[in-house]
Amino acid sequence: MPDAIHHTTLDNGLRVVAQRVEGTSGVGISVNYRVGFRTEKPTRSGFAHLFEHMMFQGSLNTAPGEHFAAIQACGGVVNANTFPDSTDYYQVVPGEALNKVLELEADRMGFLTVTPDRFTTQRNVVKEEIRLQVTGRPYGGFPWTVLPAVIFDRWENAHNGYGELADLDAANADDCTDFFHTHYAPGNAVLALCGDLDPEQAVSTARAAFAHVPARPAPTLPDLDEPPAEHERRGTCHDPAAPRPALAIGSRLPDARHDLRGYAAHVVLAHLLTTGGHARLRTALAPSGAKVDSATGYFGPLAVTHPDTFVIVSHHPAGQAQKIEQIIDGQLADVAGGASNGTETRRAVACARTGLYRDFDSLAYRVRLLSRGTLLFDQPDIGEQLAHHVTDVNDDDITAAAANVASPTGRALLNLLP
User: Fold this and answer.
1) What backbone torsions phi and psi does residue 192 show, to the nearest 5 degrees?
2) Who contacts 163 (Cβ-Cβ below 8 Å, separation ≥6)?
3) Which bin fits 267, alpha (ψ -120 to 50), beta or left (φ > 0)?
4) What is the pLDDT of residues 324-365, one digit of tens each?
5) Count of CB atoms within 10 A of residue 327's CB?
6) Percent of the chain at pLDDT above 90?
7) Is the dihedral angle over the CA atoms 93, 97, 103, 108 positive or is it negative?
8) Which three-class secondary structure state does DSSP give residue 85?
9) Predicted confidence (pLDDT) per residue in 219-264, tens digit
10) Contact call for residues 30 and 191 (beta carbons, < 8 A)
């Protein structure tokens, strides 16, 4: 079992959380910045993801590419991801490499080097990534790049996080420098450390590594809230690379900051609907040849603040869209009416709980959730809290969650056509 979480705030505003997890091999380090797709401005879509690339292009004491090379040389793993509300940089390394990783992270947090040549190179890399992963790939980015525009009204919530190529082309290195100084301040970030370590010593090591990083004003967070639409919305998108049609259904999730139990019920509902060969939607849709999945949020549980989306996605033969929709709605209505009460609910609870604790076994997952939980929810242990709430989910919770997903209020359907 993990120990209590130690946390402090450094003089420059950087929050640090550390947790000992006995018996683990190595140390996990995650730095999360409170900037993502939904922090972008119109005409600068895709900039958060582009800047993620720039953070590996060198700083005062670090050459371009050296960050990756240093971590890989000690047998560690390193990566980064851009989410709607945060950008996450993480490493898992042997314990003796902790100092080096913290020095690298502090160097780029305080002294990133931005040049026109490096910016142009990374912009071209990102544009090529869009061509390979989105526009040139079947179902590329579906549904998270397209469904938000149907379910939400605010540009921040609705736009494609990969960005428009025209917006990327219009950006320059000065925009990049401004973005860094605005959003990559220590007071806009959380550093998390976990592994078989002494938390107090780990915090002390972090304090020394980041002591020379100057404080900068943290930006004002955007207001992302918007009321759910009163009526169901529908949309259509086209994918010339897709071999067959697809359907995405999105519904608004409860706010995990204020209703974590209701949020947990939706985590369990996703498993009840699509986890395992006997799951409701898999069984009901098998005769039609459709493949279906569901998820609590596009990026997984607790990856995004409110508003977030519960998603059901089906890939099906041509001409079956209306039938698939009716089957999904029928199954949701059955669950909302209590048809899954008892054994089925208990099975889904067990699946959801097992999945969460299996994820916790990964140092990379644990340290990232530790950092993100602090940054987005001001609750470092929100992942553990979610697991406890999942364990307590009962039949009434499941029927309420299914009724929410089936409700036309705040609901959106998107048909993808080849």
Assistant:
1) -120, 140
2) 40, 45, 46, 47, 49, 50, 126, 130
3) alpha
4) 999 999 999 999 999 999 999 999 999 999 999 999 999 999
5) 21
6) 96
7) negative
8) coil
9) 999 889 999 999 999 999 999 999 999 999 999 999 999 999 999 9
10) yes
Place of tokens 């369990």: 268
CA 198 → CA 112, 194, 382, distances in Å? 30, 9, 22
Return the pLDDT at 1: 58
Distance CA 52, CA 277 (A): 38
| Cβ–Cβ < 8 Å for 395, 266 | no
Q: Which alpha helices (H) appear in 163-319, and where do they start and end? A: 165-170, 173-183, 199-210, 260-274, 280-285
User: If DSSP codes are grouped into helix, strand and coil, which group holds residue 340?
Assistant: coil
Among residues 82, 88, 164, the alpha carbon closest in space to that of 123 is found at 164
> In whole angstroms, what is the distance from residue 242 CA to residue 141 CA?
12
Looking only at the bridges linking them, the beta strands covering 309-315 and 246-252 are: antiparallel
pTM (2 decimals)? Answer: 0.96
Kindly give, in sequence order, each residue whose CB lies less than 8 Å from that of residue 122, ignoring residues fewer than 6 positions away: 50, 53, 54, 57
Closest Cα to residue 189, out of 86, 99, 107? 86
Residue 241 structure tokens: 């690379």
- The residue whose two tokens read 């969460």 is 356
